[in-house]
Amino acid sequence: MKQLKKKEKKMLIALGVVAVFGSTSLFNIYKPDKTELEVISESEEVVEEKKAEPKSYSSSGGGGGRKSGGSGGGATKPRNIAMSEFQKHTKSKDCWVLMDGEVYNITNFINEYPTYGNGATEFCGTVGFEAGFLSENKIRDTIKSKSQKMGIIG
How many angstroms separate the CA atoms of 107 and 117, rounded? Predict the structure, then answer.
């Protein structure tokens, strides 16, 4: 096998250092919060950290009710949504995203705010919405108020 020249060895070491530094920096910039999705295994199983406050979800699966859940009033058990189901909602007319470990249908938001909607649409049906779209646009509360909470991945 051919021996590497001295300059080539130095170049490889420098590239290794840059790769380690770059990946460490990116991890520190984009690492998830404690409340965000922590693990997605190959079997589409999700492990999340439990949150202190109860959440309310629409149990009907239909339109309408933001933050109010069903007619029983108060919090209901979140609907479990399979990753395969979540990944089907990829169009601007039917767009589901993951925020704070919860699935939201943001179709109403996209229709009401088309300027933001164009950028948000590329993240429909993916888990990259927070790291991609929300990292550049500080409108999380607006999106949540204009969207329907569907449940959690599970």
Answer: 9
pLDDT value of position 102: 92
As to burial, measured by CB atoms within 10 angstroms (0-12 exposed, 13-18 middle, 19+ buried), residue 109 is buried
Q: List the domain range (segments joined by +) for residue 45.
A: 39-153
Residues 6+ apart with CB under 8 A from 103: 81, 86, 96, 97, 149, 150, 151, 152, 153
SS3 content of the chain, % helix, strand, coil (to 5): 40, 15, 45
Q: Which residues contact 101 (CB under 8 A, 6 or more apart)?
A: 35, 36, 37, 48, 49, 51, 152, 153
Say if residue 55 is in the same domain as residue 76: yes
Q: Are residues 72 and 114 in the same domain?
A: yes
pLDDT digits (tens, 9 = 90+) for 19-39: 777 777 766 666 555 444 444
